[in-house]
Write a structure and sequence with these properties.
217 residues, alpha+beta, 7 helices, 29% helix, disordered N terminus
């Protein structure tokens, strides 16, 4: 399946080769002094990876966020294969973070606030299994924290239905093609038309109200 948008909108999945210019992956950094050996990895799927990558780039303590694919059957899939919905992968963002500056608990809470956590069939206008929301746990501790956080949300009865996000064991991660990396920065007009057309921010405000974090993402 492909991303579905209103006729005036531009779909992430209809990207043309003109946008495939080469640029270095440059991510936000914080001032905390930690060595690379201290850094850890987390992986989240929440619909279009352009939006998830952009969101995590804004979180202090995140050293790098890379758009890619996880959770499928095909070795080293391409974007065309994944977007066709035949490989079992989910568009994902792999986050390298400094645990001395931001905890995994914070990453999970941040993730909840940037997805439609009640929708297992895709995210916003992006429909299909390749856009399903998933927390991919790299360690038993990450799995415990994610499950505890999801259970706490359900126990709060804040929402009319249970959280629909899967928590699964992390598997091989394949980075998407270079033109997808930092897409929001390289093609801001295109990205913003897509994001507005997809009603991502509007839906986040419906879910989270004043707690929705949509600025500059």
């Amino acid at each position: 399946m492909r991303r579905f948008l209103a006729s005036a909108a531009i779909s992430c999945a209809l990207l043309v080769s003109a946008h495939a210019e080469t640029s270095a992956v440059s991510k936000s950094a914080d001032t905390h002094q930690s060595s690379a050996a201290d850094f850890q990895v987390a992986t989240f799927a929440g619909g279009c990876f352009w939006s998830m990558e952009s969101a995590f780039d804004h979180l202090p303590g995140v050293k790098k966020a890379v758009s890619g694919f996880m959770g499928g059957r095909t070795d080293k899939p391409t974007y065309a294969q994944v977007s066709a919905g035949t490989t079992g992968h989910a568009e994902s963002v792999q986050v390298t973070y400094d645990p001395n500056a931001v905890s995994y608990e914070k990453l999970v809470d941040y993730y909840w606030h940037h997805i439609d956590l009640l929708d297992s069939g895709g995210q916003f206008c992006d429909r299909g299994n390749q856009y399903r929301p998933v927390i991919f746990a790299h360690t038993p501790e990450q799995k415990r924290i994610a499950e505890q956080s999801r259970s706490a949300l359900d126990a709060s009865h804040r929402f009319s239905s249970p959280v629909a996000v899967e928590i699964a064991a992390a598997g091989p991660f394949t980075a998407a093609e270079e033109y997808h990396q930092n897409f929001q920065k390289k093609n801001p007009d295109y990205y913003n038309r897509y994001r507005i057309g997809c009603r991502r921010d509007a839906r986040l405000k419906e879910i989270w109200g004043a707690e929705a974090d949509t600025a500059a993402h």
